Prior knowledge:
alpha+beta, 4-stranded mixed β-sheet, Phage tail protein domain-containing protein, GMP Synthetase, Chain A, domain 3, Tail_protein_I, Unchr_phage_tail-like
Amino acid sequence: MRAAVEGLATPDPLGRRLPAVxxxxxxxxxxxxxxxxxxxxxxxxLDSLWAYFDPALAPPDFVDWLGGWxxxxxxxxxxxxxxxxxxxxxxxxxxxxxxAAALAEEVRxxxxxxxxxxxxxxxxxxxxxxxxxxxxxxxxxxxRIRVAEPGPALAARLRAVIEANRPAHVPYTVEVxxxxxxxxxxxxx
Length: 189
C-alpha cells in the first residue's frame, strides 16, 4: 500500500509559502515540514497519475482496483503479469460482450478452461427472398467445458461468469464433460 515514504521530499515545501516573518521561525518551519512529509506522497502520486491508469505500470494493488473499475473479469487473485494482461484487455473484450466468442474468453479467463459455446441464433444472406432462416426461433445457449474433476467451486464460478456475460434474455445450459468425451453432467438455467 502507498503511505508515507521516509525521506521523500516535496517539490513545493509549505514553509516557503508562509509570510516572511515566519521564514526564519524554527517552530513554524518544523510544523510545516511535518505537513510536507504527509503531503509528499500525494504530490508524487499526482505527478505520476497517468502511470496509475496504465495496467503495465500501476502498483499491484492498484491493478486490482483498476480491474474492478473497468469490469475486467478474470480471477481477482491472478498472478501479477496475468492480472495486468486481463485488465489491459478489458476494453477490447467489452466491445464484443454478449457474443459466443466473448463468453468463451471470459470463461477461459475465470477458470482456465477451454470452452465450447453453442448458441441458437445465426445469420445468413441470400440473393433471393424467402430463404430459410438459420438458427432456432427459441433463444438458447449451451456452455460445454471438459474437466477431470468438477467441483462445486468450479460450478459456482462458471455460473457466475455466464450470468454476468450472457445476453440477459437467453437461457443457458452448462455441460461438464470429462476430458475423454464421456457423458455430460450439468443442468439448465
